[in-house]
Amino acid sequence: MTPLLTALWPLFALIVGGLLLRRLDFPGEAFWPAAERLNYFLLFPALLFSSLAGAPLDDPELPRLALAVLLGLGTGWLALLLVRRLRGWPAGRFGAFTQGLLRFNTYLGLAAVGSLFGQPGLALAALMLALMVPTVNLMSVWALTAEHGLSGRALLLPILRNPLILACLAGALVNLAGFRLGGGVDRLFGLLAATSLPLGLLCVGAALRPRELAGELAALGWNCSLRLLGMPLLAYGVARLLALPKLETAVLVLFFALPTAPTAYVLTRQLGGDSQLMAALITLQTLLAALSLPLLLAWLG
Asked: From residue 260, how far is each of 96, 210, 287, 289 by CA, in Å?
């Protein structure tokens, strides 16, 4: 347990640091949106690109890992659709619950994988992100617009323009073409990638809204429980069913145990969803993950 805590506590310390810095108004309110844009459009794509460019795409376990990802997300999605039919949630509320259950904090996930499993884990995580990011974004947009409909073009365009997806595609193409990043290019991408994760975790903390936790206790409780406990247990069951190796199982379970993405709040506001509920889900899940993640990973061994 001690090595696990040693690997994880600095990540949550950065999140708390971001929360405190924003409350102290340092270095200023204008800094955080600019930092998020820099990370989202440049630094984080550099990390995904470099990880996929050197990933072992000929690994025979990859098809089973992809199937495990899609089975886990698909099962969660079908369960949400069933409950929505029974409860009659409007699209704004359904979209918040969908993102609370299916989206994940990519910054925290890659930082945790890098701390615990090193470069082999990061390569697997980048491959999983290439599948998970477009899938959960498509589900989220559809859920938030389920009542008034949206054209296929309007659904797909945000996904095709997503810099994380484009970085994954570019890294995979470079890898499959047999190119190797040399002549200092690998060092450049390594420096950009190393900057991405600590800045991303500070931004996660700055985006938390503890004031939103006052209402919706029942909704917050069941959604957080399913995201932080139910989804990783589902992922573990799928991994056992498909007989995934230990490292693939651990990375899969970790990503399904992550709190939801802070960017879910922006998407919810843009599409007219219940942004107050979304902000509360992001905040509570991130805080509770400091307890749930070490326990789940210790249980996995």
From this structure: 10, 15, 11, 10
pLDDT at 159: 67
User: 215 with 280: CB under 8 angstroms?
Assistant: yes
Q: To the nearest whole number, what is the mean pLDDT of the chain?
A: 86
Are 213 and 127 within 8 A, CB to CB?
A: no
Question: Which tokens in the block code for residue 134?
Answer: 């477009």
As a whole number, mean pLDDT of residues 203-214 equals 82
> Which domains does the chain carry?
2-300 (1.20.1530.20)
Give the distance, in angstroms, between the CA of residue 284 and the centroid of all CA atoms in the same chain.
15
pLDDT digits (tens, 9 = 90+) for 41-91: 898 888 888 888 877 777 777 889 899 999 999 999 999 999 998 988 898
pTM value?
Answer: 0.85
Query: Rounded to the nearest 10 degrees, what angle do helices 91-102 and 62-87 cross at?
Result: 150
Write the CA distances from 123 to 120, 127, 147, 168, 294, integer angstroms.
5, 6, 38, 11, 22
